[in-house]
Every structure is written in structure tokens, then in C-alpha cells.
Amino acid sequence: MMVNHTNAEDKTKNRLAQIGETRESIRRAAREAKKAQKGQQEEKPPYNPFFNYHKRRFPIWKRLILLIGLCVFALVAGAMFGYGALGHGNPFAVFNPVTWRHILDFFKTN
User: Fold this and answer.
1) Confidence grade of residue 20 (pLDDT, cut at 50, 70, 90)
2) What confidence tier does 77 reach under pLDDT thresholds 50, 70, 90?
3) Which residue has the higher pLDDT, 16 or 51?
4) Distance in angstroms (rounded) separating the CA atoms of residues 46 and 64
5) HEC assignment per residue over the chain
6) End-to-end Cα distance, the chain
7) Which of 16, 96, 97, 108 is deepest in the core (most CB within 10 A)?
8) pLDDT at 39 over 70
9) How crowded is residue 81: how many other Cβ atoms within 10 Å of its Cβ?
10) What is the pTM of this model?
């Protein structure tokens, strides 16, 4: 069964004629509006270093504190392991100041 579209096309043409515009003029206006909108989007503002700034999830000052804390922890853990496991002593003797005086005496001998 074939549908005759001429009746629908005639109605559309009549409506457009009443408005005073043709399909081509409507399409042309839509293309020009699209070009104008695209032209506006392509214009970029001058470079601003703070324009795309976003807040860090983990700020730099927290990273530095974490790094220093991890270094201190590694130093203490390494001293305890070295004195306890490798030196066959009590690992908690690392915190005794007498132990450190004894260790530094080896370096201070004349």
C-alpha cells in the first residue's frame, strides 16, 4: 500500500507560505545560528593560571607532613631492627640515651 504524501506536503507548504518563509530560509537561518553559536564557543578567554584551578584532594602540606613522618618512622624502625636483630640486643634499648652515647663514643675516639 502506497501512501500519498502530496497532501501532507501541500499542507506544510501552505503553512510556510502563511508564515512567509520557505524551508530553505528556515534551514539557512538554523545553519547561521549554529555557526554563530559555534563561533562563540571557539573564542577563548586570555590565559589565566587560576582559571582551571581545582582544589587538591590531598594538599601539598599534608604530603610533606606525611613524608617527614614516614622518614622518622623508617629511621626508628631501622635502628630498632639493626640494634635488636643484627646486634643481638634489646630493640627498645635504642630509645635509651646511654646506648647512643656508647655508639657515638666509637666515632669520637682520638
Assistant:
1) low
2) very high
3) 51
4) 34
5) CCCCCHHHHHHHHHHHHHHCCCHHHHHHHHHHHHHHHHHHHHCCCCCCCCCCCCCCCCCHHHHHHHHHHHHHHHHHHHHHHHHHHHCCCCHHHHHCHHHHHHHHHHHHCC
6) 115
7) 16
8) no
9) 13
10) 0.47
Going from the C-alpha of 73 to that of each of 66, 67, 78, 101, the distances in angstroms are 10, 10, 8, 21
From the list 99, 4, 64, the residue with the least C-alpha distance to 90 is 99
Give the number of C-alpha atoms closer than 13 A to the C-alpha of residue 102, restricted to the C-beta side: 8
CA atoms within 13 A on the CB side of 34: 6
Q: Which amino acid is at 67?
A: L
Residue 9's φ and ψ, nearest 5 degrees, are -65, -40
Q: Which three cell numbers stand for residue 8?
A: 501532507
